[in-house]
Each structure stands twice: as C-alpha cells, then as structure tokens.
Specification:
Helix content: 25-40%
CATH class of the largest domain: Alpha Beta
Oligomer: single chain
Number of helices: 16
Radius of gyration: 21 Å
CATH superfamily of the largest domain: HypD, alpha/beta domain 2
CATH architecture of the largest domain: 3-Layer(aba) Sandwich
Structural class: alpha/beta
Number of domains: 2
Shape: globular
Strand order of the largest sheet: 4-3-5-6-11-10
Order of helices and strands: HEHHEHHEHEHEHEHEHHEHEHEEHHH
Strand content: 15-25%
Length: 369
C-alpha cells in the first residue's frame, strides 16, 4: 500500500537491526508509551529480534486499559437508565466492570450504541430531544480535541440533553510517575507520535532534564519503531539525554495550536485515577467550569461509586512495566479475550491482547536475528 509499504520494507528493517546490534554494548530498558506501538512491536516480533541486552517495556499507553474500574461501573450505571442513550466507541463495550460490561447492559435492555465520532452523539441528542444522550469520552491527548469539540458544539446548540462521562488522561505526568516509582527500571522512552501531533514536543523537555532520560518521539510502523529504538540506544550508549523527534513527518514542536486552544477552553487539569496504578496528580482532564453542566458524572449523581480491582488480574503490574503479560498467572487461563479479567486483554491496544493474539504464551529471553 502506498505510503505504508515504505515503512515496512524488510531490507531497511534489516539495516536498522544491524545498526542497533553494532551500537549496543550494555543492557538497556526502554518503555514505549503507546499501545499502538506495543502491538506493532509484538505483531512484527521486533522485541525478539533486538539484541538480548535491549528490553522493551510496555507502558500505560492504552487509554481503554487505564480507564479505572470505578469509571466503568459509573458508565454501566448510567447506561442502564431507561431515559439514556449511551454512546461509546466499540472498544469500550467489552471492558469488564465489577460484574458486567456494556454489552451485557445492552442485552438487558439498555440503549447502548456504538458511534464513530463524538459528534455522532451530538446529532443523536438533536434527533432525540426527550432522551438523555451520554458520550463516554476517554483517551489520551489524541482523542481529546474531538471530544472537546462535541461539548463545545452541544453548548453552542443549546442542547440540554447531551452530556459526557469524561476520563481523559495525560502522558507527561504518567512518565513522571513511572520515573519516580521506587521499582522503576525504565531508562528511556519512545513517545507516542499521535499524542505529540496534538500537543507538540515542548511538554517533554522538562522531563528529559529532570530525569536525565532520553525521550524519542516516534510512529507506529515497524521502521518508525526501529528508528526510534536506534536513536534511543545511541543516546544511552553515549550517556546523553535529549528529546529527539523521529516522527517529523507528523509532529511539530508546537503541535496543533488550534486544538490546544479548544482543549484549554473545554477542559481543565485534574488528578486522575489510572486502572491498576492509582491516582496520579494532575494527570487528566475534566470539564472546565464553563462546561460543567455537561458532566454526566454530576448529572446522574454517580460520583460516589467506588470499586475494588480483581485480585486475580495483574494488569496494574503490566501497565507499570513490572510484568510482561505472559508472566501473569491468569494469562491464557482464567483471563482470555472471551473471559477477560481486565481491559488489557480486550482493548485493541492492550498489551495482554497483543500477547494473546500473536501467540506469546511463553516468556522468551531474546534471540539473535
């Protein structure tokens, strides 16, 4: 396919592997902070073809996976109400709550609908003035501008029957939390290109300086990932720590300024709970005071719902990079895509889903290409 095949060229991949082998002399632990990059790495076997000294650690880069259990339960409570049309992207419908998921709510009579844009939910609110239309707004900075635009348009249209259940999280505070954890092993990061296409790269400079850890912005195709790894290893071997943009075809230092203005208007920074991780200060967005009337959590009075994580599920350790998915005792046994214990097994960007889909049931130590 034009413009994709060139980033999947096996000969160019071989050259990049050769360069990485040539420059690697010591053990390095590198975290990719994006579920899309994780799936590219596992699907293409990149981690198994790298020098054995290089460990790729899968970080909390799947927005569905880090959505806290209590917020899923709040979504379930709202979606079950007879006056509600509950709208969500499809990847949230099978994420397990405490006792069920949105598919179960739908099968029990709840009006749960898959939409392809938050603006679809706005149009549903226009078409159904006697119903309450709720959109489940989750994600990192990538999906936030479209969600912000939906709330902005609903306000402009005077829609009183539209609201949003918001669970937006931010990448830079998560990187800081990982680096400050007492059990941290990460020495460098591959940053998500789509997040940086919105927010730019300026937020990462202070992190590089504070933790003396290289951060390389990269894309999602095999050659993108390999080039990001090559640049990261080169810095680590030289004892350097810089912010490096290896995805310049999509990312500018300033990012998408109009989108950032929309985000600053509709949202404000707040503490956020991350599933399996806990509360990270100033790590998310909520609706700002101007748009607080569109907050579904307040409108349906579900703020007091609190839940307990499954003792069998080790997705928290997976999201923090402490375990590979196939090191979890429940992986492929109690926890499968048909019987998931956590979101990391059902999300299209989840690390556990990637390991299951591509047959990673045995932990490998690395191999020569």
């Amino acid at each position: 396919m034009k413009y994709l095949d060139e980033f999947r060229n096996p000969e160019l991949a071989r050259r990049l592997f050769d360069e990485i082998y040539a420059i690697t002399t010591r053990p390095w632990a590198i975290m990719e902070v994006c579920g899309g990059q994780t799936h590219s790495i596992i699907r293409n076997g990149i981690d198994q073809l790298l020098p054995p000294q290089i460990e790729l650690i899968h970080g909390p880069g799947c927005p569905v996976c880090v959505t806290p259990l209590e917020l899923i339960d709040k979504a379930l409570a709202i979606a079950a109400r007879p006056e509600v049309i509950f709208c969500s992207f499809g990847d949230m419908l099978r994420v397990p709550g405490s006792g069920k998921d949105l598919f179960r709510v739908k099968s029990e009579g709840g009006d749960v609908r898959i939409v392809y844009s938050p603006l679809d939910a706005v149009r549903l609110a226009q078409a159904n003035p006697t119903r309450e239309v709720v959109f489940f707004g989750i994600g990192f900075e990538t999906t936030a501008p479209a969600n912000a635009m939906a709330v902005y348009q609903a306000r402009q249209l005077g829609l009183r029957n539209f609201s949003m259940l918001v669970s937006h999280v931010l990448v830079p505070p998560a990187i800081a939390a990982i680096m400050e954890s007492p059990d941290n092993r990460v020495q460098a990061f591959l940053a998500a290109g789509h997040v940086c296409s919105v927010m730019g790269t300026w937020e990462y400079e202070p992190l590089v300086a504070r933790y003396h850890a290289p951060i390389v912005v990269t894309g999602f195709e095999p050659l993108d990932v390999l080039e990001g790894i090559r640049r990261t290893v080169l810095q680590l071997e030289r004892g350097e720590a810089r912010l490096d943009n290896a995805y310049a075809r999509a990312v500018r230092p300033e990012g998408n300024v109009p989108a950032q203005r929309m985000l600053a208007d509709v949202f404000e920074v707040t503490d956020r709970s991350w599933r399996g991780i806990g509360v990270i200060p100033q790590s998310g967005w909520r609706l700002s005071a101007r748009y607080r009337d569109f907050d579904a959590e307040v409108r349906f009075a579900v703020q007091d719902i609190h839940t307990q994580e499954s003792a069998l599920c080790h997705s928290g350790e997976v999201l923090r990079g402490l375990l590979k998915p196939n090191q979890c005792p429940a992986f492929g046994k109690e926890c499968t895509p048909r019987t998931p214990l956590g979101a990391t097994m059902v999300s299209s960007e989840g690390a556990c889903a990637a390991y299951y889909q591509y047959g990673r049931f045995v932990q490998l130590t690395g191999s020569e290409p």
